[in-house]
Amino acid sequence: MLPSTAALPRPRLPSLARRLGEAATGPHGLDRYLELLSPLWVRGECRARIEAVRPEATDCATLVLRPNRAWDGMAAGQHVPVSVEIDGVCHERRFSVASSAHRRDGRIELTVKIHPDGRVSRHLVTRARPGTILRLGPAAGDFTLPWPRPPRLLLISGGSGITPVMSMLRTLCDEGHDGRVDFLHYARTRRDAIFADEVAALARRHPNVHPRTILTREERDGGRFRAGHLPRDHTDCETYVCGPAPLIEAVTDHWDRAGLSHRLHREFFRPPATRPAVDAAGRVCFERSGVTAAGDGRPLLEQAEAAGLTPAHGCRMGICRGCVCRKTAGRVRDLQTGRLSGDGEEDIRICVNAPAGDVTLQI
Question: Cα Rg for the chain, rounded, in angstroms?
Answer without folding.
Answer: 22
